[in-house]
Design brief:
about 130 residues; alpha/beta; five-stranded parallel β-sheet; 4 helices; about 25% strand
Length: about 130
């Protein structure tokens, strides 16, 4: 049984990540978790567009047989690792950042934290 976690941001473009995670399900026993962790310093649903995007992603997660979990944390990687441990996640899906210096540093740190726990699959950014 695979437990697949899809890490999303508050952008509608993350639909591709949910679809990727859904394709990884090889049986009805496989579980799909869609997760968004917002840093404490950011306003949660600070704009109408963010709310619309999360509502859109909620619907896409539901269509894929998953729920959307939204958490707020000062330690995003630590929170994601807690979820990996809690749900015995085997594969983690994340999107590649369009900014080579930005979130890719995050992804490197996240991959180190996942070592021995789950496989990280980075889906290329849409151009």
């Amino acid at each position: 049984m695979n437990n697949i976690m899809v890490c999303v941001t508050k952008q509608k473009t993350c639909e591709r990540l949910i679809n990727y995670g859904k394709k990884l399900k090889s049986s009805d026993e496989d579980q799909l978790f869609v997760i968004h962790v917002a840093e404490d310093k950011y306003h949660f649903l600070g704009s109408e567009k963010e709310g619309e995007a999360l509502e859109f992603l909620y619907e896409k997660a539901k269509e894929a047989g998953a729920s959307l979990t939204v958490e707020k944390s000062e330690d995003v990687i630590g929170t994601l690792i807690d979820i990996v441990d809690r749900h015995q996640i085997t594969e983690v899906i994340a999107g590649q950042s369009g900014d080579p210096e930005g979130e890719d540093g995050f992804l490197r740190r996240f991959q180190r934290s996942l070592s021995g726990k789950a496989r990280l699959i980075v889906v290329p950014a849409v151009s």
